[in-house]
Amino acid sequence: MDPTGPFTPPTPEPVVAAPGRTRSAAAPSRRVVPPRPVLSAAVVLGFVGLLYVVEAVDTALGGRLDDDGVIPRDFSQWDNIIWYPLLHGGWAHLTGNAVPLLVLSYLATSGGIKQFLQITAVIWLTSGLGVWVFGSYGSHIGASGLVFGFLVFLLVRGVFARSVLQILVAVVVFALYGAALWGVLPGQPGISWEGHLFGALGGVLAAWGVARDARRGARTTLNA
């Protein structure tokens, strides 16, 4: 090569998108069926089974655990946010939550177990913190905040993800459980409507987060 000759710049490498990135990243946010249905069923059944174990212990203790729910604005009891959905005010209360929890949480595993755990954490904490800050005084217990969270998550995720199939699933879910949404309004004494309301808000937040992460993951990777 003649060092005094004209400089020839190197040929630029072509811009290449990461193969399959868009398809694989977006798929979990648009699924309607769990990718591993047996594992999803085992996780959901295991969690609901844990609720029955806790209620059995509570019954043996004479209902002593019912006082360990979320107590609004009580700084000495803030950590009850961690376990308040595990507690119920009797077998009837638990059974009333268990059936919809089985159905809705199973449908919420359509993005995989990792995503399901993230969704659950968002709903759990949003409901608990909302009750602690804004709730009426008393011990708020029960998994109904999770039920309302999963319900609303399933209703709105299709809109955020722009998925026709998920919107169709939402129509079916609304037909089955839509009447329960009245539970987010103040009504029957002794019912934590605040837990329902903030659980529902947690469902909206979780659906938005799942859709946002999917959009970020679908961005093209460029090689310089």
Q: Overall mean pLDDT score? A: 85
Q: What's the gyration radius in Å?
A: 23 Å
> Largest sheet, described in full?
none
Shape: globular
Low-confidence stretches: 12-26
Counting helices, strands and paired strands, the structural category is: mainly alpha
Q: Distance N terminus to C terminus?
A: 26 Å
H/I helix tally: 7
Order of helices and strands: HHHHHHH
Strand content: under 5%
Helical content, roughly? Answer: 55-70%
Q: Please give the number of β-strands.
A: 0
Structural account:
This protein has helices at residues 21-30, 37-60, 91-107, 113-134, 144-161, 164-177, 193-217. The protein is 58% helix and 0% strand. The chain is globular and about 50 Å long. The two termini are 26 Å apart. Helix 2 packs antiparallel against helix 3 (91-107) and helix 3 runs parallel beside helix 5. The protein is mainly α and 224 residues long.
Outline the secondary-structure elements.
Blueprint: H1 21-30, H2 37-60, H3 91-107, H4 113-134, H5 144-161, H6 164-177, H7 193-217
Helix pairs in contact: 1-7, 2-3, 3-5, 4-5, 4-7, 5-6, 5-7
Identify the notable features of this structure and list them briefly.
224 residues; globular; mainly alpha
Write a brief caption for the model.
With 224 residues, the chain is an all-alpha fold.
